[in-house]
Amino acid sequence: MFRPLLAALLCACALQVQAAPFTLTDTAGATHALADYRGKWVVVNVWASWCAPCLAEMPELEALSRGHADLVVLGLAADGLDARRVDQFAQRLGVSYPVIAGDDQALRQFRLRAFPTTVVYNPQGEQALVKEGRVTRAEIEGLIAAAQAARPGLALNAH
Predict the structure, then answer these.
(1) In a domain, 1, yes or no
(2) What is the distance between the alpha carbons of residues 63 and 136, in angstroms, rounded to a whole number?
(3) Residues 150 and 124 sit within 8 Å (Cβ to Cβ)
(4) Stated pTM of the model
(5) Total structural domains in the chain?
């Protein structure tokens, strides 16, 4: 009785959502478009300087960014700071991945409801996860491992 329901639930959970394309410009002036990262996992973390859980997860995201050759982390600041202040703030926290001073247009692309919010895209550009609240490196690596088990070819390679 429950097997068909469980099977349907598991299939629904395994479905990926084709993501709307995004283009963001970081504090150094470089442009980052989802299409540019085809073949890589992309993690977009939306944060604010006043958000304690946001700041607490940044070391995890930094370690994730440094630990995998086929993964890109992008930080999107959502508290209205200008690019110079966002860059200085990120540097003080030891963040080396690209950070973006989010304007209204950039933030609308992610339909935020909470801080922090992390959106993970698989190498095909499909949205694999939207997580509201603090995320850990282990959670993201676990998601990728589960996706790889379900769909071979979505591997995550270490540096």
Answers:
(1) no
(2) 10
(3) no
(4) 0.83
(5) 1
